[in-house]
Amino acid sequence: DAGVIQSPRHEVTEMGQEVTLRCKPISGHDYLFWYRQTMMRGLELLIYFNNNVPIDDSGMPEDRFSAKMPNASFSTLKIQPSEPRDSAVYFCASSPTTTSWYFGPGTRLTVL
Amino acid sequence: SQQGEEDPQALSIQEGENATMNCSYKTSINNLQWYRQNSGRGLVHLILIRSNEREKHSGRLRVTLDTSKKSSSLLITASRAADTASYFCAAQGAQKLVFGQGTRLTINP
Predict the structure, then answer these.
(1) Residue A33: CA atoms inside 13 Å, Cβ hemisphere, count?
(2) Could you read off the pLDDT of B19-70 as tens digits, one per residue?
(3) Three-state DSSP class for residue B81
(4) How far is CA A78 from CA A6, A31, A40, A46, A102, in A?
(5) How far apart are CA A61 and CA A65, in angstroms?
(6) How many Å apart are CA A100 and CA A88, to the nearest integer?
(7) Residues of B at the A interface, defined by Cβ within 8 angstroms
(8) B9's torsion region: left (phi>0), alpha (psi -120 to 50) or beta?
(9) Which member of B41, B45, B101 has the closest CB to residue A101?
(10) Could you give the C-alpha distances from B80 to A42, B20, B61, B103, in angstroms and in order?
């Protein structure tokens, strides 16, 4: 198994641009999580899905952030418009049972 | 914040010594997990201890859990240079995993 796949691995964009981060979970995992990691705030849970349905999005910072999971093998996290304070590493994780999380390598986002 | 705290924030020891990291959390949990993160990489699951367990071992790792104090510790014995990384505890309540701030561990050769 290739593990959780995230793309792109690095993204540099200018303030105001739309950013889309992508995640392919491990096949058969029913849960998908989006986390953000910064030096100041550590690892924060943004949103998670169960069977493609968003369950808890209370960690999404504001309306500029949106996440979708159109099918069991794909999820996106979109930021529109992006701001410099959105610069962080964004991790996607999937889980079959909610007792074992598998993290992707992350997307390092830099907003200039 | 739902995040817990880890102590110390940074730890530097000599190779071969034992490293102990502590974690406190705020909510009731189903289990507590420890993860390692090498610089610039993703998180790797190390060990999980359930709320009804007090101690668990895995190789050179020993984890304890005190639910009355809402705290956990991770002990790495006979440390190696390859153990240099950041270590995070994560408390799981329901389906959510809430991470601590992490301990940056440096093993000096």
Answers:
(1) 23
(2) 999 999 988 899 999 999 998 888 999 999 999 999 999 999 999 999 999 9
(3) helix
(4) 13, 19, 22, 12, 21
(5) 7
(6) 24
(7) 3, 30-31, 33, 35, 41-45, 48, 88, 90, 92, 94-102
(8) alpha
(9) B45
(10) 26, 14, 12, 16
